[in-house]
């Protein structure tokens, strides 16, 4: 005991945090872990969605784009391509984040995420950032493939809108996926959200049409769909026009999506903080 007199303790007192501020190493490690997880099966997580989305383009342009049909003043193929890119990004962002916690709960490895010295915000940030990375990779892959398709032009009229709405859409679905994985107790629950919520909202978001062609009630319903603003805003970045409205309406939609994502982030954070359906 005398040899330790006057020397500082090697370990802090119980309850005193060792890591203060942001745990950058832990956050980066979680992010890399999640990215490596989907890259290990990139044929399924990146290339397969790109092929499926390209098939959508082929089918719809052959079925609806004949005779030089134009929508919003451009060829139908150039109109539908940005919407398909955004839809693929959102669906894959949801798929990635919704699997993270759910697989851990089912396989009993959730402790690997809860035990490291990561705060709820860092846990959320790592999972969402990895899901957004997958969404961006899928979007870039789809865009490259579509740019080679006859009749498709992906020249950007408003690059800021392409970047902003792509990130907002990826973040929105990544956060929704995280909330879904917290709620779900088995893969069937997650599949139900995908099939009965995400897929219908994606298809009914103006990807293949302009909502001005819809009746009053259905047009109002479409304008309540946040997916519509992501896809139409993303399309505005390429075409310089959209069915949201003029440039001021697009700016309002951009701000609205930011607010909606902040709300989703707050909900996801509170659920993680409470430990609901995670800690038993």
From TrEMBL:
GO terms for cellular component: ATP-binding cassette (ABC) transporter complex. It comes from the Bacteria. It holds the Pfam family ABC2_membrane. Residues 40-275 form the ABC transmembrane type-2 domain. It is a multi-pass membrane protein. One of its GO terms (molecular function) is ABC-type transporter activity. It is found in: Cell inner membrane; Membrane. Belongs to the ABC-2 integral membrane protein family. This is Transport permease protein. It comes from Qipengyuania marisflavi.
């Amino acid at each position: 005991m005398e040899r330790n007199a006057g020397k500082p303790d090697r370990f802090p007192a119980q309850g005193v945090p060792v890591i203060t501020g942001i745990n950058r190493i832990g956050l980066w490690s979680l992010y890399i872990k999640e990215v490596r997880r989907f890259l290990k099966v990139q044929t399924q997580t990146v290339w397969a969605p790109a092929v499926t989305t390209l098939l959508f383009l082929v089918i719809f342009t052959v079925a609806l784009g004949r005779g030089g049909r134009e929508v919003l003043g451009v060829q139908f193929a150039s109109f539908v391509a940005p919407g398909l890119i955004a839809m693929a990004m959102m669906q894959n962002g949801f798929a990635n984040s919704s699997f993270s916690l759910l697989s851990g709960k089912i396989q009993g490895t959730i402790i690997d995420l809860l035990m490291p010295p990561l705060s709820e915000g860092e846990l959320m940030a790592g999972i969402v950032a990895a899901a957004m990375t997958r969404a961006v990779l899928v979007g870039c892959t789809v865009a490259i493939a579509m740019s080679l398709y006859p009749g498709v032009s992906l020249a950007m009229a408003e690059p800021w809108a392409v970047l902003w709405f792509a990130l907002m859409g990826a973040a929105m679905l990544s956060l929704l996926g995280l909330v879904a994985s917290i709620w779900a107790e088995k893969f069937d629950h997650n599949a139900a959200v995908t099939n009965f919520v995400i897929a219908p909202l994606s298809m009914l978001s103006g990807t293949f049409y302009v909502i001005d062609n819809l009746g009053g009630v259905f047009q109002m319903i479409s304008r309540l769909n946040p997916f519509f603003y992501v896809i139409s805003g993303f399309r505005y970045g390429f075409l310089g026009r959209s069915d949201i409205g003029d440039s001021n309406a697009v700016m309002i939609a951009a701000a609205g999506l930011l607010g909606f994502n902040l709300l989703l982030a707050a909900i996801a954070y509170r659920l993680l903080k409470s430990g609901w359906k995670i800690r038993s």
